[in-house]
Write a structure and sequence with these properties.
The protein is of the alpha+beta class. It has a single domain, classed as Alpha-Beta Plaits, CATH 3.30.70. Helix content is 39%, strand content 31%. It has a 4-stranded antiparallel beta sheet. Helix 1 packs antiparallel against helix 2. The longest helix has 17 residues. The radius of gyration is 14 Å and the shape is elongated. InterPro entries: MTH1187/YkoF-like (IPR029756), Thiamine_BP (IPR002767), UPF0045_domain (IPR051614).
Length: 96
């Protein structure tokens, strides 16, 4: 299965907790997963097999809920090329 890019933005809603520490819980799950990832101001982008990334995304969502979010809004963006890897580096290295 080729690697894809999956961008995930989790927007926590809570009446009693600050948003950034809740988002940090999701990023910690992604960081601990071992997949290649990059945190940006609006989303975190991961690279790897689609099934694995979706499983990590679900774990990240649950971590935010477990940390006290009343609810979450989750936005995904994926780039998939059948039979060919999608690389973050190939897209961003020319601009660094």
């Amino acid at each position: 299965m080729p690697d894809i890019n999956l961008g995930i933005q989790i927007v926590p809603k809570s009446k009693t907790r600050e948003s950034y520490p809740l988002v940090d819980k999701a990023i910690a799950v992604i960081a601990a997963s071992g997949v290649k990832y990059e945190v940006t101001p609006f989303e975190t982008v991961m690279e790897g097999p689609e099934d694995r990334l979706m499983a990590i995304a679900r774990q990240a969502q649950q971590a935010v809920l477990d940390a006290g979010a009343d609810e979450i809004l989750v936005y995904y963006r994926m780039q998939i090329r059948p039979g060919e890897d999608v690389s973050m580096a190939k897209k961003t290295d020319p601009h660094r």
